[in-house]
UniProtKB/TrEMBL annotation:
UniProt keyword list: Coiled coil, Membrane, Transmembrane, Transmembrane helix
The protein's name in its UniProt record: DUF697 domain-containing protein
Membrane topology: Multi-pass membrane protein
Higher taxonomy: Bacteria, Bacillati, Cyanobacteriota, Cyanophyceae, Leptolyngbyales
Record bears the keyword Transmembrane: yes
GO annotation, biological process: tRNA methylation; tRNA wobble uridine modification
Length: 547
């Protein structure tokens, strides 16, 4: 009893004794005074006794009954509360996800992400702990769930692949306020296409769990260690369960457990490596009778209850935060893919616009000034796709900066050599020059556009390597043989053939007098000019003036 309450009790007892003595003496004198008025004396005495009884009752209630009621109320735990900081962070993530989802054009994908965000909110509101049983197909996961539930809830047998889909059951543990949802998953490391699909489901359920029960039936193999480590890296708490402990003698069991604890050091707590026998093997007694031992899963139940009592709130909060973050990452990835497709359509459109502008320009060199003017408008439109308000002046600055980079890196000369070799045109020299100019302009515009996409994808930042590294990477990606082959085929259709028609019209040549393009013998590749000039408003300004 607290010291303050003890002192109050002593003072109260002394006060009551003093009052009793005083009352007896007062009642005795009062009785003599009221002897001539018997009825009035009886009423006064009854009132005094009533007040004294009330005082004694209040004393007993305060010192004996009230503490018992407070202890009973303290046993009734309040509803579990999750870490408020993590809840707020998850809520902010979900709100950001909804804003991102609103930008997704695919209606089916949009509704799926919205549904998953609502599921995360509902899980947080319900406060249920999701425990997932994870492991190989023959480790005894279903037997473990059966033993935990105390009744048969799934098929148990030797063949792998028994659990086809994730099955969830409700479990209540003494001393744990939250309700537990325990999910039996398909086995991992199963052979065949069906086994691979079941493993994908198991891994997805594991990443959504608040707590993992990782079941083994022997020492930990590398193929089992890898998913356990991966799940730990994303923040999943695991209990490693060595099942079928009845198959080992005491010394071997201790050796296997010690080896397991050493293998998982750093990713699983040492106290979370537990040996059980979920479905012990029957054995024959000396009398000839077959004995079926009861499942021994109490070590797991005790550890599971201890972890959930101590860490249940944090496990739930961490998982809610993780799921909201993963959903946000998926939404950003989908939006990035959507924007990339839109931006690539813009690049494809402008590359042929640039080819048309250059191919009708009667100059013996690639006119990068005209290409840069086309690229400026392309920059503006790509910026809009990524939500960046770029005006034409800023677009021109970016386009001219990239044009200088293309020249300084030798990309222009390399592109001309690459495309003149690929085209192999056997037509008049004037057409050859104009065709190479137009196709090269389209190719350079493509590299510029792809580079600008990377610039806007990274929030208008060229990265640590700057514009040079981005341009070089895009040039290497767009010079592969398979791409050049398809690009040249499209260029012939969109640039070369229209030029042929123009030449024919100008020279009034009968189409019947010219053999088809594909039947002509190829000529030697056209060599790129040794010097590439950039046309500007001044005819005398050359590359040296840009550098």
């Amino acid at each position: 009893m607290p010291l303050s309450r003890l002192l109050t009790l002593i003072f109260g007892v002394a006060l009551i004794l003093g009052l009793v003595i005083w009352l007896i003496d007062s009642l005795n004198r009062l009785w003599y005074l009221l002897a001539y008025y018997p009825f009035l004396g009886a009423i006064v005495i009854l009132l005094i006794i009533g007040l004294l009884g009330t005082l004694i009752a209040a004393f007993i209630y305060y010192f004996f009954l009230l503490p018992n009621q407070q202890r009973k109320r303290s046993r009734r735990r309040v509803a579990p509360r999750v870490s408020q900081d993590k809840v707020e962070a998850a809520g902010e993530n979900l709100q950001a996800v909804r804003q991102q989802v609103a930008q997704i054009q695919d209606e089916v994908t949009k509704q799926e992400l919205l549904m998953r965000s609502r599921e995360i909110e509902q899980n947080l509101a319900r406060g249920e702990v999701m425990v997932v049983v994870f492991g190989t197909g023959s480790s005894g996961k279903t037997s473990l769930v059966n033993a935990l539930m105390g009744r048969m809830v799934g098929q148990v047998g030797a063949p792998m692949g028994t659990t086809e889909v994730g099955e969830t059951y409700r479990l209540k543990l003494k001393g744990v306020d939250r309700e537990i949802l325990i999910t039996d998953t398909p086995g991992i490391l199963e052979a065949g296409v069906a086994g691979t699909e079941r493993e994908k489901l198991a891994r997805r359920l594991a990443t959504e769990a608040d707590l993992l029960i990782f079941v083994l039936d022997n020492d930990l193999r590398q193929s089992e260690y890898d998913p356990l480590r991966m799940l730990a890296e994303i923040g999943k708490r695991s209990l490693v369960i060595l099942n079928k402990a009845d198959l080992y003698n005491e010394q071997d069991l201790e050796t296997v457990q010690a080896r397991l604890r050493e293998r998982v050091r750093g990713i699983v707590n040492q106290t979370d490596v537990i040996a059980i026998a979920a479905n012990p093997q029957p054995f024959r007694m000396e009398t000839g009778e077959t004995l079926h031992p009861e499942p021994d899963v109490m070590p797991l139940i005790r550890r599971l209850a201890a972890v959930l009592r101590a860490e249940g709130d944090d496990l739930l909060a961490d998982n809610i935060l993780l799921q909201s973050q993963r959903l946000g990452e998926e939404a950003r990835r989908l939006i990035d893919g959507q924007r990339r497709r839109q931006a690539e359509k813009i690049v494809e459109r402008f590359q042929w616009i640039g080819a048309g502008v250059i191919s009708v320009t009667p100059l013996p060199v690639v006119d990068l000034l005209a290409t840069a003017a086309v690229n400026a408008q392309m920059v503006v439109e790509i910026g809009r796709v990524y939500g960046c308000d770029i005006n034409m002046e800023r677009g021109r600055e970016l386009a001219f900066s990239l044009a200088k980079t293309l020249v300084s890196l030798g990309v222009v000369k390399g592109a001309i050599e690459l495309l003149s070799t690929a085209l192999q045109l056997s037509v008049g020299g004037f057409l050859v020059g104009r065709a190479i100019q137009g196709v090269s302009a389209a190719y350079l515009t493509r590299i510029a556009g792809k580079s600008f996409i990377e610039y806007f994808r990274h929030d208008q930042d060229w990265g640590d390597g700057g514009i040079t590294e981005v341009v070089q990477r895009q040039f290497q990606l767009n010079r592969r043989d398979e791409f050049i082959k398809s690009f040249v085929q499209e260029a012939i259709a969109k640039v070369v053939k229209p030029l042929q028609l123009d030449i024919r019209g100008e020279n009034e040549i009968d189409p019947g007098e010219m053999e088809p393009l594909e039947l002509r013998q190829p000529m030697k590749p056209i060599q790129a000019p040794e010097r590439v000039e950039i046309r500007t408003n001044s005819d005398e300004e050359t590359l040296e003036d840009w550098q």
